[in-house]
Amino acid sequence: MKGLIGKKIGMTQVFNDEGNLVPVTVIDVNTCLVVGKRTPEKDEYSAVTVGFGEIREKLLNKPQLGFFKKASATPRRHLREFRVTAEEAAGFNVGDAIKADLFAKGELVDVTGITKGRGFSGVMRRWSFKGSQTKTHGTHEYQRHPGAIGQRKTPGRTYPNKKMPGHYGVERVTTQNLTVVDVDVEKGLVLVKGAVAGHNDGIVIVRPSIKVAMRAQHKAAR
């Protein structure tokens, strides 16, 4: 599973080849760099370590700085390991820049990001509860309450994972099967159709669609 680390710039809109207006999310992948490799002989699996975002050496601790110096790689702020085959790993060398053309126009990708934090939220906002429709019979300011949360003496407790008020957001979310609308290699930008989880300037991970890969495997197995 090849992939890129990028920064969500924001959303805009472009015209496709048919002249239709398409909303897109702009992802900056300009500073992706290979900083390490994993080989079956040494690590028992094959992978490529990709770094993103420049960082000064004085901001790194000794173990981090030693990792980059041992690999003779430029320090990077964010690191991510992508599994690849041994043949694919042989095509990458430490220090190589990974361009936006790793993905082609029209390809389906999965984009992973961290959702926006919304603090402590009630059940109507967090879980889309309908809320109480009773406004009479002694009900006082109860329209947005969750209602009953447990049973009687048996079992005498509230079950785990009950949908209740709590911290909402800051969760790892993957949006699947987004179409790559355009790729700008010079500026290091990837434009994907639709919205991506996270705020602007948030770090996202772009990978090929897992569902497309699974369909190809099932078709080959037949």
From TrEMBL:
The source's superkingdom equals: Bacteria
Q: Name one Pfam family in it.
A: Ribosomal_L3
What protein am I looking at?
A: Large ribosomal subunit protein uL3
Any one of the GO CC terms: cytosolic large ribosomal subunit
Protein family: Belongs to the universal ribosomal protein uL3 family.
Task: List, alphabetically, the HAMAP family matched.
Answer: Ribosomal_uL3_B
How it assembles, according to the record, is:
Part of the 50S ribosomal subunit. Forms a cluster with proteins L14 and L19.
| UniProtKB keywords | Ribonucleoprotein, Ribosomal protein, RNA-binding, rRNA-binding
Q: What is the lineage of its organism?
A: Bacteria, Pseudomonadati, Myxococcota, Myxococcia, Myxococcales
Report the InterPro entries cross-referenced here: Ribosomal_uL3, Ribosomal_uL3_bac/org-type, Ribosomal_uL3_CS, Transl_B-barrel_sf
What gene name is given for the protein in this entry? Answer: rplC
Tell me the segments the record calls region Disordered.
131-160
Q: What does this protein do?
A: One of the primary rRNA binding proteins, it binds directly near the 3'-end of the 23S rRNA, where it nucleates assembly of the 50S subunit.
The record lists the organism as Corallococcus carmarthensis
GO BP term, pick one: translation
Molecular-function annotations in GO: rRNA binding; structural constituent of ribosome
